[in-house]
Amino acid sequence: MPLDIASAAYAVTIAAGGLLGYVKAGSVPSLAAGLAFGSVMGIGAYQTSQNPDNYGLSLATSTVLAGLMGYRFATSGKFMPAGLVATLRGDIAELMCVPVFVKYIENRVIIIKSSTNVIHHGRG
After folding, report:
1. Alpha-carbon distance 34 to 12, whole Å?
2. Please, are residues 99 and 68 in contact by the beta-carbon 8 Å criterion?
3. Domain annotation covers residue 26
4. Is residue 115 part of a domain?
5. 10 Å Cβ neighbour count for 105?
6. Residue 35 is part of which domain span?
7. pLDDT at 107
8. Is the backbone peptide bond immediately before 99 cis, with ω within 30 degrees of 0?
9. Which pLDDT does position 122 carry in this prediction?
10. Cβ atoms 45, 79 nearer than 8 A
């Protein structure tokens, strides 16, 4: 399977943001959170690369991070870095959820077609 580039890029962005927070402001919590969330997101990117249906860890990680950063953005009003991370999370969620929704719809159509074939066979 090919690499899930979107999730891998998001993982690198999260880790780099934590490192940047440490370099610019000396923030050890930013470094720790960035490396922790980036690492977990990297594992999630690996999982979705192996099996695209295995998106749970990536989705959970990005949701928690979006909640934390969304709260920080709401209280501080500063777009960087909280607003940017929350915005990126929305893009990643779209990339993960749209294929899942499409597959769900395709499966429903197959089930409906199968059940209509059964009904027609029963009449004939």
Report:
1. 9
2. no
3. yes
4. no
5. 10
6. 5-98
7. 65
8. no
9. 46
10. no
Can you tell me the mean pLDDT for 114-120? 51
Cis peptide leading into residue 81 (ω within 30°): yes
Give me the residue label for tokens 């923030």: 27
The structure's pTM equals 0.68
* Distance of alpha carbon 79 from alpha carbon 72, whole angstroms: 9
Answer whether residue 117 is part of any domain: no
Would you state the structure tokens that stand for residue 58, as one six-digit string?
Answer: 């990536």
Residue 43 resides in a domain: yes
Q: How many domains does the chain have?
A: 1
Helix, coil or strand: residue 95: helix
**pLDDT of the residue at 124:** 45
Q: Which structure tokens are listed for 55?
A: 């998106």
User: What number of H helices and E strands is found in the chain?
Assistant: 4, 0
Q: What is the pLDDT of residues 43-65, one digit of tens each?
A: 999 998 898 888 889 888 888 88
Spatial separation of the C-alpha atoms in residues 58 and 43, rounded to whole Å: 8
Q: What is the spatial distance between Cα 77 and Cα 72, in angstroms, rounded to a whole number?
A: 8
Whole-number pLDDT of residue 101: 61
Distance, CA of 6 to CA of 81 (rounded, Å): 19
Alpha-carbon span 10 to 39, nearest angstrom:
11
